[in-house]
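Practice problem: Acyltransferase family protein
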Amino acid sequence: MFHAASSPGRNRAPLPPAQSPADGVPSPRSPRNSKNRQSSRTSPTSSSSQSAPNRQSGQRDAFFDNAKYLAIVLVAMAHAWEPLKDDSRILEGVYTVVYSFHMPAFIIISGFFSRSFDMRPDRLKRLVTGVAVPYIVFETAYSVFKRVVGDAPHAEISLLDPWYLTWFLCALFIWRMTTPLWKLVRHPLPLALGIAMLASVTPDIGNDLDLQRVLQFLPYFVLGLCMKPEHFRLVRRRSVRILAVPVFMIALAVGWWAVPRMNTAWFYHRDAVQELGAPWWTGPVMVLAMFGCSLLLTACFFAWVPGRSMWFTALGSGTLYGYLLHGFLIKGGDYAGWFDHPALHRPLGEILLTVLAAAAVTLLCTRPVQRIFRFAMEPSMEWAFKRDAAELARERERGGRREKVPA
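Answer key — structure tokens:
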């Protein structure tokens, strides 16, 4: 590469071709310098957290954008239900069912689009600007918000202790950095499950970087790395869609039954079994049991996701915006006492709050919101990175060719 960039004359070695960015890098959009190139071969909703392209037509598969949008709507709805669920057994049962699969579904998709990740400089840069920088910005913003609006003047600002929603960015950074290792080992999913089981009985891991969640949710990310497009097509068959109906009905019944019998903290994956007051051996058992249940319900969720372009398909490229921003609305409402209103604790109030949560997160995924908060979610930060030598050499080569063209 360096010889090619510095050798004069017409015998100079050819430069390597410019490589396209990795699919599925979790920053909300593609970098500026590839925007024009990607727009010619993808739909107008293209982003760096993009869905799998149709290899025959070169277009994005709307299924993945639809799945990301619907999953993030479920996340916002579940967060809105949290202050109300103790007053309604039905609502808490639904909450339990939704919590068992909405984040696993999102994490599996993230893993699926991380399959091509390696330590190439441009991909590392996108990981920093699309995940690490938003984590720092929003972890600080949430802490300040808690101090000012939440009337907690002594709330700490610590980048080592993710608060509320920012744990996912921290986890995503760690998972993606370990992707080359999972692609190297022979049996990645059993290994990831073993790590999650060990984490569930290790309270000494502590809260730094929310490692309990990072490790206990790890198998879903690794599963996504192991999946292929045909696996998603398998669960989207008509027979699976039909079978998903009774499965979800049974899950709702089990969720209602389990409300007084099971601690919902199991679904958060943020505590070791000792911290939940259960015998140590239940940790590994629950990791395996919940992994199986989550996969079953996630498959049902994917079976119901439409595969064609819908009115909300374009919003799939802005799900990270909706995820990080809706937390300010939920926490702000909690601090202001909105959830204490008696009307919200009745069935009609719960339905109204559900609709409002879905509408709010939908608005937060739109392009105008993306343009406003792009500085925090996808900064270019060209000043912070060295230019790739091959890219600089290609630019010089193009400039030399233009100079030789006669006027």
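Discussion: The chain has one domain: 58-404. Students who identified this feature from the tokens alone can consider the problem solved.
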